[in-house]
Amino acid sequence: MRDAQATTIYLKDYQVPDFLIDRTALHFEIFDSHTLVHSTLAMRRNPAAKNASAPLVLDGCELELEALSIDDQAVTESGYESAGESLTIHTVPDSFTLRCTTRIYPQNNTSLEGLYKSSTMYCTQCEAEGFRKITYFLDRPDVMSVYTVTVDADSKRCPVLLSNGNLVSTETLEGGRHRAVWEDPHKKPAYLFALVAGDLERVSDTFTTMNGRKVDLHIYVEEKDLDKCDHAMLSLKNAMTWDEEVYGREYDLDIFNIVAVDDFNMGAMENKSLNIFNTSCVLASPGTTTDAGFQRVEGVVAHEYFHNWSGNRVTCRDWFQLSLKEGFTVFRDAEFSADMGSRVVKRVEDVGLLRTAQFAEDAGPMAHPVRPDSYMEISNFYTVTIYEKGAEVVRMIHTLLGPELFRKGSDLYFDRFDGQAVTCEDFVKAMEDASGMDLGQFRLWYSQAGTPQVDARGEYDAEANTYTLTFKQSCPKTPGQPQKEPFHIPIAMGLLGDAGALRLELKGEAPNPDTADNTHTVLHLKQAEQQFVFENVPEKPVPSLLRGFSAPVKLQFDYSRDELLFLMQHDDDGFNRWEAAQQLGVLALKELVAAHQNNEVRALDERLITAGRNLLNDDSLDLAMVALMLTLPTEAYMAEVMQPVDVLSIHAARMQARLELATALKEEFTNTYRTLSRRQGDYQPSAEQIAQRSLKNLCLQYLMLLNDEHSLQVCMEQLDTSDNMTDRIAALVALVNSEHEPQKALALQKFYQDWQHEPLVINQWFQIQATSHLPGTLKRVQELLNHPAFEIRNPNKVRAVIGAFCGQNAVNFHQTDGAGYRFLADRVIELNTLNPQIASRLLGPLSKWRKYLPEQQALMKAELERIAAEPKLSRDVFEVVSKSLAD
Ligand code: TRP
Ligand code: ZN
To answer: Which of 746, 327, 770, 714 is nearest to 552 (CA)?
Structure first.
């Protein structure tokens, strides 16, 4: 292992930079064999620095230095020292111009950070620390500079030359080359720098801001994808309008560009005025993209656009503050998506991700607070904790303050810190100052890792007409944090009586005269144990707790199954109606898991079947809700609530339950499917149509479990005649997970033939095969790695085959002989040298080895040890492997 280079960086060691860079001029000369980067930096000592004679230490990684001067005096080899990832110049004046030329090789850069080539296009990815792979610099977000960028390249191969800000001039050069000069008037950290050069076409539109600024909008793609930009453009304009209306934030330049690239480590990047997107997060058309794909494009386009304020205008002081921009921006994009589509569906999806992926991370070896205290490799901290839990923390502030005071707080935050690099503490303080609310204890959400456990119980006193809720909270230990203080937990709630929601009179609190509706409130749980007494409660109520999932905690309340059935029907909070169905499903599945483990035969609780029938027969219900409530808890969620995790029993139990539902409700599923198959008008990714398709396709999945000719026929017909990818993919998934072998093989072959020219569709084709729960999937996955359409250097393909198999196919990944683990370790070792970020991300499922059964633990641990023994581990993989094995 490479412990020599694996140093840990600590938040407590933060110091302001010794130098500042006021202006940055970059000149790129792009050639086929290499690129030259000439940089001119106007630098001076930071008046706020501790050491007024500190040497100049620049970041730089894998660079060939061709020239270096200070105030036009060459710095000779004795004047600087270059080691590891830095270059030190011992003596410099207080203020000076630093010039340097570096030579880089974008075509050999497989890490996809810095300047690299994606097919024929040159593009950059600088967050978090990629800029140091382009030139020597102070590559940290609190060094902000004004950029001028000159790009020279071949006119034919790279007719389009883009960078941040405004295009100020273009020029034809000798030798078939040309030049573009871009100037960004806004100061920014290096991680927001971007450059694109390639043969691209564009779709254009305009947007007029609330103060009448006309903004040119362009989406740059390969020519063949010009027909797939409309949805992203519409989403962008909707996001621009929404940010004006909801946050009062206006766009601040005359141009906004989006570029789509095939090879990209993440979803997209918010570079100032030049957002770069993974093609999977920007391209969409009904024929090639599923409903989920359309929603992803809308969400990611909005997310990157919202970063212009929450991230770019106000940026992070250091990378420990990453959630300052990511948590806030995820909260913003989630609210946007909720406003554009179905609020409850969006919340259910987000909570599903949080409770599986984030809770698992919080319980594993990589657990870290929303504001981490330390890291080895910052790329490992673009996590569900920073993003999703960070968004939940902002959502809790919103819940505690209410919408008006929250808006006052965000206005103050943007106003106070515009143009600065700040901290999570600055954000919380602005919220406190604007609202007058004390968020002292609330700050623990930023510093303490782990998912709080909240146990609640209720007691009705029929004599006194009081209802007492008692809460206990605790939080398990996480690496480096053996003990935790109680959190400030907002618990949105109501009490339900036979005739509906009851009026709430909390003892010791005056009724709120502002709210006409006193049937819901937010309790502030702050102590390890705390009681709330409600007075004048006329009957024994059923409490509806943690409405809308008002805090990222595990709540335990001993509901009877009949109470859950009651909440499913009568709770006036849509999220909690779904949650009641989930918890009912959890109770029923736990029973079946236990039976399976004891080799007993046990039938599914009848009440689930009755509830399912009622849902399907009630046409007053929202179709999206019906689809969500008919979906049993996922295997991933069951794994979260049953530890140690017995993957095979969970899978068997869930399959049994689904089959029993399908058998008992065959008629209802058939009728609902038939009714919903008739659609009015063209395909639209609207909430209404999406709901309709999701319920229809859920019916199809259930019917296909019956393994009969009629269902097969229905499925094949949907596959052959659908006009949209959502319905085709749903049919293909059902078929691939069925036992109709000849039809399956033919359908997969035909699908490939039909779509081989569409890489994003082929990725779905890969993923469907990699996530089949049937035996033999690992062998098929290994074959897919040799398929001509597979490329190990393309992260989307790696995610579609390897990531999907290891992360979304528990029953096959955990096959008892350990072949799944071996397969993953081999791929991680292969990717470790090609693309460390992707290698490290793939490791997630192995790193959580301690939750599984002893035999599985041993096999998983052995594979981690095999990776650890590799001679040259990247910092990314080293950090995850060493923390996973540490005790
Ligand atoms: N800031 C990006 C976002 O909007 C995240 C991101 C994109 C990123 N590409 C990356 C982070 C590469 C690390 C490495 O969430
Ligand atoms: Zn982001």
So the answer is: 327
